[in-house]
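During the reporting period the student researcher (J.K.) took over the structure-prediction task from the postdoctoral fellow and processed the backlog of single-chain submissions. One of the processed entries is reproduced below for the supervisory committee.
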Amino acid sequence: MDENKSERSVVPQSSVFKALPRFADAITFFPPDKKRFLVISLVAVITGALVSLVARLLIYLINIFTNISFFGEFSVRHLSPAANQLGLFVIVVPVIGGLLVGLMAVYGSKAIRGHGIPEAMEQILTNHSKIHPSITWLKPLSSAISIGTGGPFGAEGPVIATGGALGSTIGQLLRITPHERKVLLAAGATAGMSAIFGTPVAAIFLAIELLLFEFSPRSVIPVALACITGAAGHRLLFETGPVFPAPHIEAPGNTALFIYSIIGLVTGIIAALVTKAVYYVEDAFEKLPVHWALWPAIGGLGVGLIGYFAPLTLGVGYENITGLLSGSFPLKVIFFLCVLKFISWAIALGSGTSGGTLAPLLTIGGATGVLLGMACIRLFPYSGVVLPLAAMIGMSAMFAGASRALLTSIVFALEATGQSSALLPLLGACTCAYVVSYFMLENTIMTEKIARRGVKTPNTYEPDLFERVHVKEIMREEAITFSSENTIAEIKDWLSSQNGSASGHLIVVNDEGDFTGLISLTDIYKTSLDPVSQVGVLVHDSNTCVTGETSLRAAALLLANRDSEVLPVVSNSSTRKVIGAITYKDMMAAYQVNLAELHRSSRNISIRRSGIKILLHGRKLLSKL
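J.K. obtained the following structure tokens:
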């Protein structure tokens, strides 16, 4: 469907959303496309504010379920499930949570399963960014139950999924295009991340790398405004400082930079193995001879067993990330967070329960970085490696390797910790992890699930060729035109002489050569008019023309909208003298030529003539010597 055509909403429109187009019409000093842009930006800000409230409510909901499940009290205050005194009964708690999530998936929506981002990506790529409105309350509720009963997930995944569903729902309430709805979905999702972590810049990069698959003002500006609003919500509803405070880190020397890059490389290999392991566990659950609604309960049993021996693996565990960054955890705790947290998370995520990936990856990566940092300090005691930075390197490289969201991983670590001096080592380590992931993984932890369902996700952000090429560069300068005074019989005689090679539409001009409209061959052959009648009475689509400065993208959209096979090119919009024509075949030929040019390998060096003389003179001198 043409993205410039507005669709009817799948949700009934309310008076509030009907008022927004009227607000845009009131802005008379902007062209129509920029009026729509202002409305979408305003809606993105509203979405960001709503998602901030949802984030706060979800944290309260997680705390309520955690306190009820592990401490037997109804309270919104934060208590870590690691401090529980349930003994062996702690094994049963995640099983109960898994059963509840399974029932919600059966009787509510199957879309609540998983960690949210792949599902949002799939709706963007296959369903015009339409997410069922029920996800806006089913996802946070199911995630709160899952995490509150010990699920080893972070709160950010459910908030991202809920924010995306909220943005999509608002987009369905409005009469907007699929692209604009995609922008609102991405705005809601990334505003959720910004509201939880207070990292608006990283959230913007997350939208670009995992949701929008483009970088343009019409997409990035509304998302940026939503992320800024989410960050303001974080400061108002949560805290003002870094979400993961770390001790001050000095800028490392060259030796330490090299070692941190190697840590990133090794972490990237581990991230690729982690990704493969998660989907191996998911495949194992697929083979179980029980209904899929019971899988979260079976996964909960594994979570409970591990939680009995390693309580720190239960629940959100943001405090574990802070502890790893402080460098104060003993070796046993670090090992548990690296290995047992991974096993618990892989089992839970593979079982199809509701949860997220970012916090577990940060925890596992941070612990991996600390362990590798300890080994490097022992082997190279004077290298300048410090454990807090090694933990930061590990958590960022793990996320970069598993998701291939390179810029998001780097900027997130800087914003979440407030350690700007870590930029260079983060850049080296995350790039190494990204390269390893590119060679070891066909798909990432975010895209593997939907790739198995046949959904291809973009992995390049090349400029749109049709935006860069203008009509005048490829148009046919000799266009076949007909006078509006030609008779129907004359047109039929000419068509019969073409042996079917004529296009489906003919260009009609007046006596001065100015474009008056198009005539379809169907109208000519099916008309009941007298053959001596002039064809001017059959003319239609008088506005179906372009100038030479029009982009190929705009020309292609006009052809699609008018259902025409040929597009006349006029001198300007006022005189409209026909100077050429363009067809779909011309556009495809231009695309093939430019595509071949982009991928052509050649040696092409440009040297000034004086430089050539110097080289030749130098060669003569060398031959004499």
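The committee noted the following: Strands lie at 481-483, 505-509, 515-520, 546-547, 566-570, 578-583.
J.K. will present the remaining backlog at the next meeting.
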